[in-house]
């Protein structure tokens, strides 16, 4: 085991664990356990909101899988990845103040709360719950695997042991901490990610002899590595452009991101988060993917792409500093997975159990169920992650696309189009989910683009067509 790197890495984990438990002790002051546990009492300031959105979106896919693909594909994947720069901006601009105002009016604490009140349909709630549980399980498995891979590469422990350490740490603080603990730790994690990626990029450039020498080495190995088209020329313009939908505009439909857009304190916090979030996400995503490409001449022949990040950090930095810097991707993974756990837990407890099974459940009962379900979900995903694939990014992108195909139009059109109704929402979700799964299974790149683009267009046609052709009784305002 590399003790220096392990001590500094686990020191960061211990700090995060301490903050989570400290925050959890403050949660009993609120009137509603559900508001506190799942939404932090809608009290996030601008900096915390920006960092929690950044840390939640910056996942194992961004920090482990993305650089791994960039290592194989070259600068073409960096160009594709920068589409994520606009993620925070699009999310807050599209959902914006209107989403926060409407969710406060509905007293919504989850995305499904909003959809339930907007469409007054049990079928919409059921489809939403199933979509979240199914697709977020894939996303959570990707995060579990990323955390395990990182600790495995850094410490020399077996993958299973590393995965177990990661899972236990996350489960303890998210089970007892809830949303407030998650957002507070996100602020620290986002800062670590921002600084850590800068330090690592500089160290990689120095180790490679400067940018000019790195580029010459890449070109000598394969000229395609320094073009926009990927190592084998498969990154076409339509395919790259479609990622503006998948990891750009479409992100507004991710439940774990949308719930943050309803939790800020005031307008000043909103504007501050808009500015900070866009800058931080842009810097982090560009740096991480450049690191993946620049690592190729320094450490050639890495077979498992998900191990590129931890191995290059250990190669170009002193061990103790590598441990500190790698706290950035570990922080991102922990932040994403704890948020996903809360989303799935709230879907089961808040949206299904309280809404339809036992609305009069006591605070103590809800608290016990929330913590128990969160812990159980973590264990189930751990079992799924025991046998991982070589690259987790495709698992994560599959989950993101599925959620976007299901939710983007019921959310966006539900906010801005008065004629949208439950028939349109149901049709849109069914068409989006089914077409996405069919395309992914049999025709993954229709018209040369990622399948999510075609599925979203079909879902839009279904939403508008069914809303206009099938009338619904006026809803309560």
Automatic annotation (TrEMBL):
<feature type="transmembrane region" description="Helical">
    <location>
        <begin position="449"/>
        <end position="468"/>
    </location>
</feature>
<feature type="transmembrane region" description="Helical">
    <location>
        <begin position="236"/>
        <end position="258"/>
    </location>
</feature>
<feature type="transmembrane region" description="Helical">
    <location>
        <begin position="392"/>
        <end position="416"/>
    </location>
</feature>
<dbReference type="InterPro" id="IPR038377">
    <property type="entry name" value="Na/Glc_symporter_sf"/>
</dbReference>
<keyword id="KW-0812">Transmembrane</keyword>
<feature type="transmembrane region" description="Helical">
    <location>
        <begin position="270"/>
        <end position="299"/>
    </location>
</feature>
<feature type="transmembrane region" description="Helical">
    <location>
        <begin position="319"/>
        <end position="345"/>
    </location>
</feature>
<feature type="transmembrane region" description="Helical">
    <location>
        <begin position="157"/>
        <end position="179"/>
    </location>
</feature>
<dbReference type="InterPro" id="IPR018212">
    <property type="entry name" value="Na/solute_symporter_CS"/>
</dbReference>
<feature type="transmembrane region" description="Helical">
    <location>
        <begin position="423"/>
        <end position="443"/>
    </location>
</feature>
<comment type="similarity">
    <text>Belongs to the sodium:solute symporter (SSF) (TC 2.A.21) family.</text>
</comment>
<dbReference type="InterPro" id="IPR001734">
    <property type="entry name" value="Na/solute_symporter"/>
</dbReference>
<feature type="transmembrane region" description="Helical">
    <location>
        <begin position="76"/>
        <end position="95"/>
    </location>
</feature>
<dbReference type="InterPro" id="IPR011849">
    <property type="entry name" value="Na/pantothenate_symporter"/>
</dbReference>
<feature type="transmembrane region" description="Helical">
    <location>
        <begin position="191"/>
        <end position="216"/>
    </location>
</feature>
<protein>
    <submittedName>
        <fullName>Sodium/panthothenate symporter</fullName>
    </submittedName>
</protein>
<dbReference type="InterPro" id="IPR050277">
    <property type="entry name" value="Sodium:Solute_Symporter"/>
</dbReference>
<feature type="transmembrane region" description="Helical">
    <location>
        <begin position="44"/>
        <end position="64"/>
    </location>
</feature>
<feature type="transmembrane region" description="Helical">
    <location>
        <begin position="366"/>
        <end position="386"/>
    </location>
</feature>
<keyword id="KW-1003">Cell membrane</keyword>
<keyword id="KW-1133">Transmembrane helix</keyword>
<keyword id="KW-0813">Transport</keyword>
<feature type="transmembrane region" description="Helical">
    <location>
        <begin position="6"/>
        <end position="23"/>
    </location>
</feature>
<dbReference type="Pfam" id="PF00474">
    <property type="entry name" value="SSF"/>
</dbReference>
<feature type="transmembrane region" description="Helical">
    <location>
        <begin position="123"/>
        <end position="145"/>
    </location>
</feature>
<keyword id="KW-0472">Membrane</keyword>
């Amino acid at each position: 085991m590399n003790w220096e790197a392990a001590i500094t890495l686990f020191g960061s984990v211990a700090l995060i664990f301490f903050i989570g438990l400290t925050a959890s002790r403050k949660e009993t002051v609120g009137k509603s356990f559900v508001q506190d546990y799942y939404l932090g009492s809608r009290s996030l300031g601008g900096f915390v909101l920006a960092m929690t959105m950044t840390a939640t979106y910056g996942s194992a896919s961004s920090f482990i899988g993305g650089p791994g693909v960039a290592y194989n594909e070259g600068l073409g994947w960096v160009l594709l990845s920068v589409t994520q720069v606009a993620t925070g901006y699009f999310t807050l601009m599209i959902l914006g103040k209107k989403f926060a105002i409407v969710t406060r009016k509905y007293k919504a604490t989850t995305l499904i709360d909003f959809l339930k009140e907007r469409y007054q349909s049990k079928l919409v709630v059921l489809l939403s719950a199933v979509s979240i549980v199914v697709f977020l399980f894939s996303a959570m498995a990707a995060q579990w695997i990323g955390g395990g891979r990182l600790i495995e590469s850094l410490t020399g422990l077996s993958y299973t042991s590393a995965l177990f350490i990661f899972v236990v740490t996350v489960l303890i603080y998210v089970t007892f901490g809830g949303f407030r603990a998650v957002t507070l730790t996100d602020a620290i994690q986002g800062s670590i990610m921002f600084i850590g990626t800068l330090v690592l990029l500089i160290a990689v450039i120095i180790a490679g002899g400067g940018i000019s020498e790195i580029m010459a080495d890449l070109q000598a190995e394969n000229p395609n590595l320094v073009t926009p088209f990927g190592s084998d020329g498969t990154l076409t313009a339509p395919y790259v452009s479609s990622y503006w939908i998948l990891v750009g505009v479409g992100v507004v439909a991710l439940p774990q991101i949308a719930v943050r857009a309803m939790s800020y304190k005031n307008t000043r916090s909103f504007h501050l988060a808009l500015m900070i979030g866009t800058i931080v996400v842009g810097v982090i995503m560009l740096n991480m993917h450049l690191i993946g490409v620049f690592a190729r001449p320094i450490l050639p022949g890495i077979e498992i792409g998900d191990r590129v990040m931890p191995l290059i950090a250990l190669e170009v930095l002193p061990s103790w500093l590598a441990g500190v810097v790698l706290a950035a991707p570990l922080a991102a993974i922990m932040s994403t997975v704890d948020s996903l756990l809360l989303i799935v837990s709230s879907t089961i407890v808040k949206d299904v159990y309280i809404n339809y099974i036992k609305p009069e459940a006591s605070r103590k009962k809800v608290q016990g169920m929330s913590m128990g379900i969160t812990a159980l979900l973590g264990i189930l995903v751990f079992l799924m992650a025991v046998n991982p694939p070589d690259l987790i990014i495709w698992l994560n992108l599959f989950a993101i696309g599925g959620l976007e195909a299901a939710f983007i139009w019921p959310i966006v059109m539900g906010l801005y189009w008065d004629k949208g109704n439950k028939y349109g929402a149901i049709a849109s979700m069914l068409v989006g989910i089914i077409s996405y799964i069919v395309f992914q299974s049999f025709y993954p790149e229709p018209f040369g683009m990622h399948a999510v683009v075609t599925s979203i267009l079909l879902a839009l046609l279904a939403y508008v067509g069914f809303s206009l052709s099938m009338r619904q009784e006026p809803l309560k305002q």
